[in-house]
Amino acid sequence: MEFAIFPIDKGEHVSQYVKKVVEMIDELPYKSQLTAMGTIVECNTMEECLSVISKANAIFEHDVERIYCTATFDNKPGKSDQMEHKVKAIRGK
Amino acid sequence: MEFAIFPIDKGEHVSQYVKKVVEMIDELPYKSQLTAMGTIVECNTMEECLSVISKANAIFEHDVERIYCTATFDNKPGKSDQMEHKVKAIRGK
Amino acid sequence: MEFAIFPIDKGEHVSQYVKKVVEMIDELPYKSQLTAMGTIVECNTMEECLSVISKANAIFEHDVERIYCTATFDNKPGKSDQMEHKVKAIRGK
Amino acid sequence: MEFAIFPIDKGEHVSQYVKKVVEMIDELPYKSQLTAMGTIVECNTMEECLSVISKANAIFEHDVERIYCTATFDNKPGKSDQMEHKVKAIRGK
User: Fold this and answer.
1) Using an 8 Å Cβ cutoff, are B59 and B24 in contact?
2) Residues D6, C10: Cα–Cα separation, whole Å
3) Which residues 20-59 of A have a C-beta within 8 angstroms of B?
């Protein structure tokens, strides 16, 4: 899963908000990668992915008036290590 | 929330799969709108939105090898009736 | 194609900005639908779709510091009237 | 900009298609990063970004029946080096 979440009502600079989300994800036992456009998190199940978004939203919810979040899920049930595997499949080993 | 979910491994025609998701959403007590690009669902909380995606994913998970899902959340905590309100704010009453 | 475009640096209420985009699209010779989450535009080619995004971005570019835009394209080369057809394929006639 | 583009009508394994897109992007004079969920490309203008999507779509268009593409643009007019800057703003130097 890749997702991005940020407040719309706090002006142009949102990195202090995104920082809190990234720190929360760092505490989780999932492989993740922060990019310029969002965070990629590899969970074992869809439920786990959705729970990460829920936790991220909870960080904002009490002091933000409007939260925007985009998420993309590429779910291959029963498969793991896709974050690394997918890039290798394209780049070669 | 707007989301789209479909199998990638079942060929070009995915409407029979999407139909099951839409029927599931129709049973839920939320306002929703099916469009050519996805389904918009207005829930009261982020948890409810994430639960809709979880239910949609569960429909596919046992007989699909690869599921793709995109979701966008526009969360205004404590506000309701945004689906109608937002279009009116742009189009006028 | 469905897309949403809005400024991040102008606070919570962005409908006056989105309104300009919608008015621009209304002038174009494409079928379109404004929803609570974005605008669906049916063009004949990918080039036409990308040109709509370019025009929308141009509306903002001189007085906005940060513009966020999400777009999803469902391109069936050579096919038309998909906006209506896709909903019918799911809802039945 | 981050984007992902792939055929829906070619089955579960799409890496040979994505590979062509990545090779095309490698030839371009823009900073880019391939991730498990898409490709991030840093262009100077929105026009350049849209042109990359157009080129990617052209790779598929003659032998694919249905192409799906998602794109997210984070446009800060007049600013450069955001790909690196944004991650640093969150992770610290």
Assistant:
1) yes
2) 34
3) 46-47, 50-51, 53-54, 57
ipTM above 0.85, yes or no: yes
- What's the pLDDT tens digit per position in C47-81? 999 999 999 999 998 889 999 999 999 999 989 88
Asked if C92 contacts B22 with a C-beta cutoff of 8 angstroms, the reply is no
Say which residue the tokens 């029946």 belong to: D65
Neighboring chain D residues of B70 at a CB cutoff of 8 Å: 70
Chain C residues with CB-CB distance to D68 below 8 A: 72-75
Give the total residue count for chain D. 93
Beta bridge partners of A33: A40
Give chain D's residues under pLDDT 50. none
Of residues B34, B37, B72, nearest to C74 (C-beta): B37
> Cβ–Cβ contacts within 10 Å for residue D75, how many?
24
A32-45 burial, b for 16+ CB within 10 Å, e for fewer? bbbbbbbbbbbbee
Residue with tokens 């309104």: C19
Mutate to test the interface with A, among D24, D30, D37, D80 (most CBs of A within 10 A): D37
Give A59-70 pLDDT, tens digit per residue. 998 889 999 999
The rounded distance, in Å, linking the Cα atoms of B25 and C48 is 33
Q: In what helix (H) or strand (E) does residue A39 lie, and over which residues does it extend? A: strand A39-42
Contact C79, C29 (CB under 8 A): no
Q: Rounded to whole angstroms, how far apart are CA atoms C76 and C45? A: 9
